[in-house]
Design goal:
Strand order of the largest sheet: 1-2-3-4-6-5
Structural class: alpha/beta
Largest sheet: 6 strands, mixed
Order of helices and strands: HHEEEHEEEHHHHH
Number of helices: 8
Length: 294
């Protein structure tokens, strides 16, 4: 009797994943371990064909399983594409309510890449791409948002070298047809998948993601990598508690300020009313006195 075998070990896996790709350590390890994943993801995001990618290298690789010190913690992935394009990828699951300024800071640092003595025209095209496990702007939810420098009046593009993209993993239901056709929705679902059954459904429809699923399988089975993923999960849980406490504190302070401002306005209104009443009383008293004299 022949035993059915497959080159992909993940196809034999069942049940819940130990860690999902929203774990930023696993996210980095998978993209670093499997170059096909890195290239396919970037092609989807930048709407490129695979043949357009001549070179694709991670400029800041880390040793698998290496402990990330809290003070030096940085798991964004800096990719150099075709020698003159820089793509900075980052997974962010906690909303510190500072992502607009934080991502802009990252983008500016990468854009400031001109070698001394070189012309400004030699600046590399830069993309800052954040995968967020929350909605960035509650009043303006969007699955895949692209921000660039444009004229405020007529939307004329200032330059195509300065790009800030945001993928909101929780908003796949409002993705555009273009997002679906470019497999960005499939990537978001893969990153959020919690079971091997979900993974298999996604790869069945997107065979090019087989190597990604296999990289997830091998990375989570690697003890030293899994241990760092566990540490990150613990840190993330702690950071979420801190973020919630900070959010509640800000809300409490805002409420207190609002109540104080309201009370101040009421006092001012009351004072104004009392002043008006006093003036009317004084006027009536003066008229009464005049009447008595006559």
């Amino acid at each position: 009797m022949k035993v059915k075998t497959t080159k992909y070990g993940y196809l034999n896996a069942t049940g819940a994943l130990r860690y999902t790709m929203t774990n930023d350590y696993l996210f980095r390890m998978v993209l670093q371990r499997d170059k096909d994943t890195l290239i396919n993801l970037i092609c989807a995001l930048l709407h490129l064909k695979r043949c357009q990618v001549k070179e694709c290298n991670i400029a800041n690789p880390i040793e698998p399983g290496m402990t990330i010190d809290g003070k030096e913690y940085q798991l964004d992935i800096v990719v150099v594409l075709n020698t003159d394009v820089i793509v900075n990828l980052e997974m962010q699951v906690i909303n510190y309510e500072n992502w607009p300024m934080r991502s802009l800071s990252y983008l500016c640092r990468r854009f400031d890449n001109i070698s001394r003595g070189k012309d400004y025209l030699t600046a590399s095209t830069v993309y800052q791409i954040g995968f967020l496990d929350f909605t960035l702007f509650e009043e303006h939810p969007e699955f895949f948002a692209k921000y660039q420098l444009r004229n405020a009046r007529d939307n004329f593009l200032y330059t195509d070298k300065f790009n800030l993209f945001v993928v909101e993993l929780n908003n796949t239901e409002i993705a555009t047809k273009e997002d679906v056709d470019n497999n960005i929705v499939a990537w978001a679902k893969l990153f959020k998948a919690k079971t091997w059954e979900e993974i298999k459904m996604i790869t069945k429809e997107n065979p090019s993601m087989n190597s990604t699923a296999e990289a997830i399988y091998k990375s989570t089975a690697d003890y030293v990598i899994a241990e760092q993923c566990r540490i990150r999960e613990d840190n993330i849980a702690h950071e979420k508690i801190q973020a919630e406490q900070l959010k509640n504190l800000k809300k409490e302070l805002a409420t207190t300020k609002e109540e104080r401002d309201t009370a101040t306005k009421e006092i001012q209104t009351l004072s104004s009313t009392i002043s008006d009443q006093a003036a009317i009383i004084a006027q009536l008293q003066a008229e009464l006195a005049k009447y008595k004299r006559n």
